[in-house]
Each structure stands twice: as C-alpha cells, then as structure tokens.
Amino acid sequence: MPRSQIPPQPRAVRVQTSRMHTAHPEVRRARVDVAALKRDALIEEVVGRYGVELRSAGRALVGRCPFHDDQGRANLYIYPDTDSYYCYRCNVGGDAIDFVERIEHVDFRGAVERLSGRWRNTTSAARMSQRHAALPRRGPHNDRAVRTNDPAASDRAGTADAGQAHDVAERACLAAAVELYENQLRAETRGREYIEARGLHWSTAARFRLGYAGAQELADFLRWRRLSLTAARRAGLLTADGREVLAGRIVVPEIRVGDVHWLIGRAIDPDMEPRYLGLRGKKPLLGWEAAGKAPAIVLVEGVFDVLVLHQWEIPALALVGTHARPDIMASLARFERVYVALDRDDAGAAATATLLLELGPRAVPVTLPAIPGVKDVADLALLPDGQRLFARALLEARQHPSGMSVAATGSKAPAPRPTRSVRRTANAA
Ligand SMILES: [Zn+2]
C-alpha cells in the first residue's frame, strides 16, 4: 500500500494492556510479539548498541547511564534475567523497548520498528563496515567520490600524504564532531572571541568549518546520533572514560572531498598544555582542498598561518610543525613553486634549509618582515597592513630568490596566483 493511503494515525500509540499497536502496517503485519522481540534484541545488546559499555556485576551488568551525566560510580544496571534496566540515579527503568523509546525520544511504535527488522539490518550493515575497516577510504561517507566514480576525486583528496585509515564508523563520528564543534563555536562567546582575536573573519571560520569543543557534549551528541562511542574512541575523539580529547580548544578540521581526515585543537586557555593537540594518526598537510590546483603555494608551519593566507586568498599549505615526512615531500612535488614561509626562529630556519635542499629549485624561501612581535604569518594578520607586508615579502622572494638551489635557476619564480579575485581581497582588507 503506498504511504499516502495509510490512514491517519492516532496520537496515542501506546496500548498499555497488550503493548500492541495496530495502526502501523509494518507493526500490524508483525503483530508485535514483545517476547519474541526481546528474545531477538537482548537488553544488554540494545544498551550496548548506544555506546554504553557494560561490565558484569553479579547477576547484573553495570554501565554509565546515558540519561544523566553519570560521572563517578556508574548507575545504570542491566538485568538480563528479567530483560530490564534500571538507573539508580534517574530512578527510571523498563525493558529494551522502553530503553529505546527513552534514548531515541521515539514512541512505542518507533522503538518496535527500531528493534525489529530495521534494527537487524543496520546492525549487520555496521558489522559489515567494521569488517571492511581495513579497506581504503571509499565508502558511503565519501559517497561523492563513489557515486561519480571520479578519478580526479582521489587526486583532490590528496592521496600522497593522507595517511588516515578511518573506518566508516570512525568517519561518521569525525563528521558529527565537526558539526557539533561548529555549532558550539557559533554559540559560545569564548570561542568566537578567540577567532576574532586571531584576526580571522567569520567567513573564514565558516569556510574551513572551524569549531570549538566547549561543553563536553560530544559523547551525548554521538549517542543521540546513534553513533558508536567505541569508534569515537578509536578515532581519538574521546578518552577511554568518555571525555573529549579536544575539550577547551578551537578545532580546525582537514576536510577533503567531504571527508574529515584529521582534527587539531588549539588551546584557548594560555595555561593549557599542549597548546596544539592533534588527533592520533599521521598529520596531513592542512589546507589541501583550498590550495586547489594552484601551480604555486606558500608553505607555512602553523594552523593559523594557513588560515590567514587562505583568508588573503593566497594558496597555502601548513606542515603543522617543521617536520616534513617523505610522503609530505612527495605531495609537495606536484607544485611548480613552493614558497617556504616558516617561522622566524631557529627551528624555522633549520627546516627551511632542509626543505630547500629536498625540494630543489622549485623551493623559494620567504623572509618575513623583521617586526617585533612578528614571528609567523599569523602574527602579520594582527597588523593593520599585515597583508600588504606579506605580499611584499612574497614579491621580494620571487624577484630575489636567495636560496642556494634557487639561485642557480636564475629565473623568476611564478607567483602564487590568488585563489579568487585580488580586488575582492583588497576591498575585504
Ligand atoms: Zn541515570
């Protein structure tokens, strides 16, 4: 029967006496056998499905209650022998159906649907995806690349340095985290103020989907989205006890072809250590998609350096530090010119020398203006004429390439072409 012909359903869907509901075709067809449902969907499996980790305690299983902020001693008890659960803090309990109703904010019918066929389908789908975890990242989450079967998509994704191997469940968690943090940045004054203090515009924050991990809400959010907390732990978003790894930080994602590859968080609190904290896994070059197909790029050290340059519409990539692994060097090989604009300090100078040697004539060192308080490109963003000063430094580098291997080429290096119109940038500044 087409959906449009389904008669309107009554609002009260819970039939207390029989726990049967006859309005929904699927449910009616199945003539809900609650006992059978419970046999199929064991309470401990159902609860575990929502990311609650259980350990045994006598005849019961114990875990953290998802209905309150369950710190310290866990309060949620699961009793497999009676197919029931009870939270001794919330004083709520019931069977598996009740648990699903409560955690998903659905009615009896919704919970039954979840626990019947659909539940098993999603469960087996999830298990399948776990089994395929080792396969390269082409999956439903990266569906643009799959659907179009676009060979350029893998090029855009930057295969050379992208060492992440997240499975489907991890990618879903990373994507959800970016979404949550983005919303928290909008909502929280502290995060917004920090972004502004670094000289970044709102349009830049939105373009690069910057976020703020402000409120220890990730675990709840993932539960609500029915995502696996275990996968979130694997991805490095949550600690073993469910706390947020990036809490209290501005979060900068590296997103390629819609796929979140990596996150790095910058502490807002000046006393917080370390100042930068990246998720586990190989750190990629940041800014890959925004750098696009530019023949020349500016290579910088820091997360904010690369954001500032993109704000100025200059194609750029960040090493996130000074070390360039061999696969990073391989990624850089596709550019005709790499303007190396690392920090004005000893580590920056040493890394610049190494990069010039390894990249050969395509590398051009950029000397940042010697202004007190200016150590990197991000510092320039705080000066009223910072953008102009950087443009001048870039021009000087291009006209007088002083690097030893560059000097041998003699010719002028191509300038990094603005990603959009220069006039627009000038107006925006
Ligand atoms: Zn509780």
Which keywords apply here?
alpha+beta; DNA primase DNAg catalytic core, N-terminal domain; Dna Topoisomerase Vi A Subunit, Chain: A, domain 2; 429 residues; five-stranded antiparallel sheet; DNA Primase, Chain A; binds zinc ion; 3 domains; four-stranded antiparallel sheet; 41% helix
Give the topology.
Elements: H1 25-30, H2 34-40, H3 43-49, E1 55-57, E2 60-63, E3 76-79, E4 84-87, E5 92-94, H4 96-104, H5 108-115, H6 117-131, H7 143-148, H8 151-156, H9 168-187, H10 189-197, H11 202-207, E6 211-213, H12 218-224, H13 229-234, E7 249-256, E8 259-267, E9 276-278, H14 288-291, E10 296-300, H15 303-311, E11 316-318, H16 326-332, E12 337-340, H17 346-359, E13 363-365, H18 377-380, H19 386-399, H20 404-407, H21 422-428
Parallel strand pairs: 10-11, 10-12, 12-13
Antiparallel strand pairs: 1-2, 2-3, 3-4, 4-5, 6-7, 7-8, 8-9
Helix pairs in contact: 4-5, 9-10
The structure holds zinc ion.
